[in-house]
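Blackboard transcription, Thursday session:
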Amino acid sequence: MIMGNTLVAVDWGTSSLRGARLAADGQVLEEQSFGRGILSVSPGEFAAVFEACFAPWMDERSTCLISGMAGSRQGWAEAAYCRCPAGFGELAEHLLWNPPGAPAGRVAIVPGMSCTQDDVPDVMRGEEIQIFGALRLTGLQDGIFVLPGTHSKWARVRHGRIAAFRTFMTGEFYALLGRQSLLSRTVDTDAPFDGAAFDEGVMRAFEGRGLLHTAFGARTLGLLEGRAPAALGSYLSGLLIGEELRQALADTDTGEPVLIGAPQLTAHYARALSLRGRTSRSLHDQATWAGLHALAQQTKLL
Amino acid sequence: MIMGNTLVAVDWGTSSLRGARLAADGQVLEEQSFGRGILSVSPGEFAAVFEACFAPWMDERSTCLISGMAGSRQGWAEAAYCRCPAGFGELAEHLLWNPPGAPAGRVAIVPGMSCTQDDVPDVMRGEEIQIFGALRLTGLQDGIFVLPGTHSKWARVRHGRIAAFRTFMTGEFYALLGRQSLLSRTVDTDAPFDGAAFDEGVMRAFEGRGLLHTAFGARTLGLLEGRAPAALGSYLSGLLIGEELRQALADTDTGEPVLIGAPQLTAHYARALSLRGRTSRSLHDQATWAGLHALAQQTKLL
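(Written on the board underneath:)
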């Protein structure tokens, strides 16, 4: 039995709600997840959902840190973005304590981060904690950190601080093109992964003809060359991930990117990076808990 | 009253059916259009729809040429693609006469064209006739011909023949991103054209960061900088058209592209081209009739 303070670490995203009870040293004591992403929660209902899910963990020695979309305008309470460059210190300073209805002094929402490049702002919520967790887990203070997904993030870290980042709408483009465009007739996005077709898509993207043109190949290759919809699903995925890499790597000529995400997705990115001659390393779900734990230490909560 | 043979020129596309009765010299005698694109016609019903729409024009001196998706697998009868490079001669040789149920020897479907670049096939149906019409109307024998739309086509013409072409899914991306993606919350695609916002999007695209990243700006500029959805509709359009131009112009460093299409759309492309320092000229609906008329002359139908 571990005594001392505990941290209730919560990742409250758009479509899911996950929590972990962490010991003072960061050990994960228990984990839970719920189908209560913020899109399923009405305004004013957040405190009740939190209570229903996490009350058993919130004893007198516990503090809770929440990252993710719970801090957005549509979430529990809006936590203003922290501007890059920023590190743990800035995140800790800008914690939003006491969202409406929470037990006083016991719950804080982690702000997201914003960044302006070429006069256009960019934002993330939740990924910043995963990046800080990855720094803790790897011992790195500098590098490129990649969070693949619906809206992939590529962040550059310098001296332990997030210097800048960019979003790529890769996962959303894949869903739109594969399921809602004309391509949906020749592309099966639910088929098993086809490595050769994926690699072909990646290499095609690397040629730099751009997605507006190359995506049409996922139709013509089926129509004129009889390629199977299953293969074209992986081909389209390769086109998109290859395009993301081609653009993102233009900023990052050297170093070994750290991929953070679900094992299958990071494996696809690692595979595509290797076709560019780049090695990478991958971290999975543990990054969020490590990040919230590190932030709790920074804030002297543990 | 003009005597002699007449041409019934028909443009039968995915969502619309248009026809014109042309005199032997190409003069347009009458025009009609119907909401009977091929998507609205059941297999086996094409001859009846043709008869209902065009029987009054099909006297003993008339021949009919049909271009567009009527020649696709989902159309009246499949007319195999003509491979590039190809000119009027090849199109005329590959006319598909007598689709099922048509009056014998009187109706022919114009084949589309295919082209393979970088090992990936590309196709068009209907645009090839517009390009040949544009050649006739301008007197050009060489040049770049651009047909903006759902699936824009950029064709290179040499010595009066279509040498090669590429498709860009620009219009479809605009509809998907503006109406079905997360961006639909910050973007109004039905708002009036905003020239300054459009130009900003075009210039942003020219920087070459790629659509997967730049598209996200249509969300953050709304969310963080309070840009109006109306402006962001034109901004997104500029991002997409700018991206198409950036890619397509990489092949075509010189010359004055000929834009073929509806006046509003070609005006937007001309505007974006001018931001790249390129002049252009524009042709509108007359290109289809001119192309079918030229093909009828080539085939000695007139």
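Lecturer's comment: The radius of gyration of chain B is 21 Å.
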